[in-house]
């Protein structure tokens, strides 16, 4: 498996094919793929290709308010899941983030995204906040009044 820096063409190919990564959630995730992630944060955007096909990607950035690396988006095509692609993308970004002085990595997800919660737990991320009615730690009102989010964090 080879992790490559994302190119502008890769970014727009991903945007055209969000359905293949996100299934019926693709419309919800489309606006989150803002072009700044390639133009301004392109040095922390990565892809994995299989026979020239993009099968996984990560969009990240380094925060300005603390020494934190932030994973904005990570996705692996269903055909390539559970093959360590997600973990490898995280590790790759972590290596870069450490070299730039970061001491934490952070990501968020919706409380209903159980697959993402399981994956992030497996790669050693802790859930901040307090337990919700389902017994899952959430940060209350993170995205606005009544909009709790799962906030993952790990020291690196
Ligand atoms: C979440 C996602 C990125 C995981 O990628 P992946 O390449 O399949 O994960 P990996 O193979 O690197 O798995 C790493 C560990 O997490 C576990 N894991 C991955 N997906 C899991 C799931 N759905 N349920 C339980 N455990 C899971 C793996 O078994 C592995 O554990 P191990 O170390 O004990 O073997 C991928 O499922 C995905 O793209 N999902 C759809 C998009 C999404 O929800 N992204 C996250 C939004 S915040």
Kindly describe this structure:
By secondary structure, this protein is α+β, with helices and mostly antiparallel strands. It has 6 helices and 9 strands. It has helices spanning 8-16, 18-22, 26-29, 36-39, 85-99, 114-122, and strands at residues 3-5, 45-50, 53-62, 68-76, 104-109, 126-127, 130-131, 137-138, 150-155. The chain has a 7-stranded mixed beta sheet, sandwiched between helices. It has a two-stranded antiparallel sheet with strand order 7-8. The longest helix is centred in the middle third of the chain and has 15 residues, at 85-99. It is globular and about 45 Å long. Residues 74-76, 81-87, 109, 113, 115-116, 118-119, 122-123 line the site of coenzyme A.
In summary, what is this structure?
By secondary structure, the chain is of the alpha+beta class.
Describe the main β-sheet briefly: 7 strands, mixed
| Strand composition percent | 25-35%
Tell me the helix content.
25-40%
Question: Helical element count?
Answer: 6
Q: What structural class do the secondary elements suggest?
A: alpha+beta
What gross morphology would you assign?
globular
Rg, Cα atoms, Å? 15 Å
List low-confidence stretches.
none
The helix-strand sequence is: EHHHHEEEHEHEEEE
Placed side by side, the strands forming the largest sheet appear as 1-2-3-4-5-9-6
Please tally the β strands and state the result: 9
Give the cofactors and ligands: coenzyme A
Distance between the termini: 23 Å
Overall pLDDT confidence: 97
Question: How are the elements arranged and paired?
Answer:
Blueprint: E1 3-5, H1 8-16, H2 18-22, H3 26-29, H4 36-39, E2 45-50, E3 53-62, E4 68-76, H5 85-99, E5 104-109, H6 114-122, E6 126-127, E7 130-131, E8 137-138, E9 150-155
Parallel strand pairs: 4-5
Antiparallel strand pairs: 1-2, 2-3, 3-4, 5-9, 6-9, 7-8
């Amino acid at each position: 498996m080879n992790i490559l820096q994302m190119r502008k063409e890769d970014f727009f190919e991903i945007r055209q094919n969000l359905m293949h990564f996100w299934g019926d959630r693709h419309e919800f995730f489309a606006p989150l793929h803002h072009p700044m992630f390639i133009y301004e944060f392109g040095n922390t955007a990565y892809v994995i290709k299989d026979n020239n096909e993009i099968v996984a990607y990560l969009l990240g950035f380094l925060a300005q308010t603390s020494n934190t690396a932030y994973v904005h988006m990570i996705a692996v095509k269903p055909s390539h899941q559970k093959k360590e692609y997600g973990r490898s993308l995280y590790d790759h970004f972590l290596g870069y983030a450490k070299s730039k002085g970061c001491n934490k990595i952070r990501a968020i997800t919706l409380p209903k995204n159980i697959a993402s919660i399981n994956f992030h737990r497996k790669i050693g991320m802790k859930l901040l906040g307090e337990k919700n009615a389902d017994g899952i730690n959430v940060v209350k009102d993170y995205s606005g009044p009544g909009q709790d989010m799962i906030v993952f964090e790990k020291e690196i």
